[in-house]
Predict the 3D structure of the following.
Amino acid sequence: GVNIAQAFVRDPSIVEFVVDQGVRFVITSAGDPRTYTSQLKDAGLTVFHVVPTLRAALKAVDAGVDGLVVEGSEGGGFKNPSDVSTMVLLPLVASKVEVPVIAAGGFVDGRTMAAALALGAEAIQMGTRMVATVESPIHENWKQAIVDASETDTVLLNRHAAPSLRVLRTDRSNALEFDTSTNAMEHMARHTELYFGGDMDAALALGGAVAGRIESIEPVADVIKNCSNECLEVLRNLGSTYVK
């Protein structure tokens, strides 16, 4: 599968390219779900759309998406300025729609996965956790910054603009935290120097608050296996403790 962040699509033919390459699953985000959904579904693809509010979720369902990625504001990366947490947003959306829901924003292990299932999700999406993996192509400095971060070491920028961004705390992001006159997106121009050169102040390092719970850089296979096993263990323990 692939992600299509609509706000950053420069050439709409990317959709035709995705179809031609035999991709079967697409997640669209950062834009109107009506833009590509019909084209993708007519080609036989499964389409989910990322939503930050109930209103956006209902709009996406009306557009015909197959499912939703419900992402709260604690997640890393480009956000909606509405700043609604996953704990509030996920059960709200799950109670109002009849399509599958993937939970995103704050998920890192089996314990949080079990919580997502309890709140109405069918699955979880992990972003920051996957950045800090052995296979992730970004520079080791960024991965280590995630490992070193505490639960308070992210900041939501562009609270009065779109898109907002949740990023790791650095000298650059700290300087922008209370600056309402500057669009933080202007500080993403040198992102390749950050991503691949490891200069943590060249641009803004996207990351979620869950960085505070990540203690090591692990292989992706281990992350997924441990998450699944722990989730099942948590659910079994909850059942034996509270269901009589």
Q: What stands out?
A: The radius of gyration is 18 Å. The mean pLDDT is 93.
